[in-house]
Specification:
This protein is α+β, with helices and mostly antiparallel strands. It has one domain: Thiol Ester Dehydrase, Chain A (Roll). About 25% of the residues lie in helices and about 35% in strands. The protein is built from three helices and eight strands, in the order ααββββαββββ. Strand 1 and strand 2 form a beta hairpin. Helix 1 runs antiparallel to helix 3. The protein is globular and about 50 Å long.
Length: about 160
């Protein structure tokens, strides 16, 4: 099966800037691939949650994690099925554990990996950090429900399995 890198790049760009919320927060696509996705949000004064410290608001990081988790599901579906998702998805569950405040005046990156796809739900793990994924600002565990039927899995020859 051929992995469609162009489809993934297009979906990644759409997730980073194609929704009004992502565009307002100025999300940036960092990477997309069969193994997962990464997006970033630059620090801006209007995104600060604590004026005294200059720390980015937790809601901005939550939104970034939700977006990159969804993008990682698209990555996994394209890697498994070889083409576009022909249905939508919705965040079913999103748990975020905040480990520490984001560093003031720093871009935050979020990396997500979809580790399990079923016919109706995808499961994802993610983390948000500045430079080092091993020192996260926050980690996330998410589940996404497909809002339409998942296509049948396909074999290497392209036949339905």
């Amino acid at each position: 099966m051929t992995f469609d890198h162009n489809a993934l790049a297009m979906i990644g760009a759409r997730m980073a800037q194609g929704t009004p919320q992502a565009a307002a927060l100025n999300f940036r696509l960092v990477s997309v691939g069969a193994e997962g996705a990464a997006m970033a949000v630059p620090w801006r004064p209007e995104l600060v949650g604590d004026a005294e410290t200059g720390v980015m608001a937790g809601g901005v990081i939550t939104t970034l994690l939700d977006h990159v988790c969804g993008l990682s599901v698209s990555c996994a579906v394209i890697a498994a099925d070889g083409g576009f998702m022909e249905y939508g998805m919705a965040t079913l569950d999103l748990r975020i554990d905040y480990m520490r405040p984001a560093e003031p005046r720093r871009e935050v990156i979020a990396m997500a990996r979809c580790y399990k796809l079923t016919r109706s739900i995808a499961f994802v793990r993610a983390s948000a950090y500045e430079d080092d994924e091993s020192n996260p600002v926050a980690t996330a565990q998410a589940a996404f429900a497909f809002t339409g039927p998942r296509p049948a899995a396909r074999s290497e020859s392209g036949a339905a399995a």
